[in-house]
Specification:
single chain; globular; 10-stranded mixed β-sheet; 38% helix; 3-stranded mixed β-sheet; 2 domains; Rossmann fold; alpha/beta
């Protein structure tokens, strides 16, 4: 007689060689429940941050320069403000968030108190014109005041407040206000978004209190060892982090239930900014730079008189990398100069080589 086996038994015999996807029991179902990040790399599922399910609202973004850390940070604070009723405090050491913040409703008065009230908005504190010591002193003062207001606010959950500071957090690492927000922010609805190029250089206090970590491409051995040690990542997961494409990131989320989610986002979804020009590679990845930075790059390579000719190819604030290279060459730019500028922006050597190959083929040079 033929033995019968159940479909469950068959399923257990099937090996599916793909990375984990977000757990459906711990993931948001729509933008009403969480903040959309992008789609996962294998099953193309929408992935969200849903703070109701996470251990805390703190977020760390890490990876190599040019990988997409700032692009993700801008997308996070804009989407949290627009779609998740979150207030945002931007402590900006370099001035790089000015354009992104200016397009949102900015709170200028009555100071930090406005962020803890019933209203909703974004407060951008631009420190880039100060000396290094003045920046540190001002940022420390801001965190001390925010921690004080947070405790006065009590446990009543109004609009969530997210505080964004880039790698400059290391300069105020021992600040009491920062430490208070990291340790107690969860119960007051206050979260921290910060970044670090080298994960192993990140304070243990910061790392141990982050429920969501975005990891862009890194090949740094010590950072990979830190990931393996602290989050029990497999060799396969560590290898996938080293092979990430531009704009892709690996996500680790720690949930209240004790579940750990680990998955890859194919491409971070950004907010379209009319002050930004997006340069897209043939692989569909892109880097956004300000219009001012784009114009300066073209002027330095070709002369300001050629700017209008190069920007002919910019459509809806977007240009492909091969088209940009072709236009720069056609308008007299030195090829080594182009290479150096594209590297500085953050494009990989392989992406640049592909763009040159396509551009030269198209213009018959």
């Amino acid at each position: 007689m033929l033995d019968l086996i159940s479909s469950e038994s068959v399923a257990n015999l099937i090996y599916m060689p793909i990375s984990p996807e977000p757990d459906l029991e711990t993931s948001a179902r729509s933008s009403e429940d969480g903040t959309l990040l992008g789609n996962t790399s294998h099953l193309n599922m929408p992935a969200f941050i849903d703070f109701r399910n996470l251990l805390n609202p703190h977020i760390l973004i890490c990876g190599m320069t040019g990988g997409g850390k700032t692009y993700l940070a801008k997308s996070l604070f804009a989407r949290m403000y627009m779609f998740s009723s979150s207030n945002v405090l931007l402590i900006d050491f370099t001035g790089e968030y000015l354009e992104a913040a200016s397009s949102l409703q900015v709170i200028n008065s009555p100071g930090l108190e406005g962020l803890f009230g019933e209203g909703q908005g974004v407060m951008h504190i631009d420190l880039h014109g100060l000396s290094e010591s003045e920046k540190v002193a001002k940022a420390s003062e801001i965190f001390d005041k925010a921690a004080e207001l947070m405790r006065k606010r009590g446990y009543k959950q109004r609009n969530r407040l997210m505080i964004l500071i880039d790698e400059a957090w290391k300069l105020i690492e021992k600040n009491k206000g920062l430490e208070t927000i990291i340790r107690e922010g969860r119960k007051y609805g206050v979260g921290l978004i910060t970044s670090s190029q080298l994960l192993h250089d990140t304070s243990a206090n910061i790392l141990s209190n982050m429920a969501t970590i975005f990891i862009f491409k890194t090949t740094n051995i010590k950072s990979l060892e830190t990931l393996s040690k602290n989050f029990n990542l497999s060799e396969k997961e560590l290898k996938s982090i080293q092979d990430l494409d531009l704009g892709s990131c690996f996500v680790i989320q720690l949930h209240k239930s004790g579940v750990r989610s680990a998955f890859t986002i194919r491409k971070v979804i950004g907010i379209r900014d009319t002050n930004t020009i997006r340069i897209r590679t043939g692989a569909g990845m892109e880097i956004g730079i300000s219009v001012t930075e784009f114009d300066e790059m073209v002027a330095s390579l070709c002369g300001r008189g050629k700017l209008v000719h190069v920007k002919d190819k910019v459509k809806e604030n977007c240009i492909t990398l091969p088209d940009l290279v072709a236009k720069l060459i056609e308008n007299g730019a030195d090829r080594r100069g182009i290479l150096l500028r594209l590297q500085k922006i953050g494009f990989s050597n392989s992406s640049i080589a592909d763009a040159f190959s396509i551009a030269i083929s198209n213009i018959g040079a």
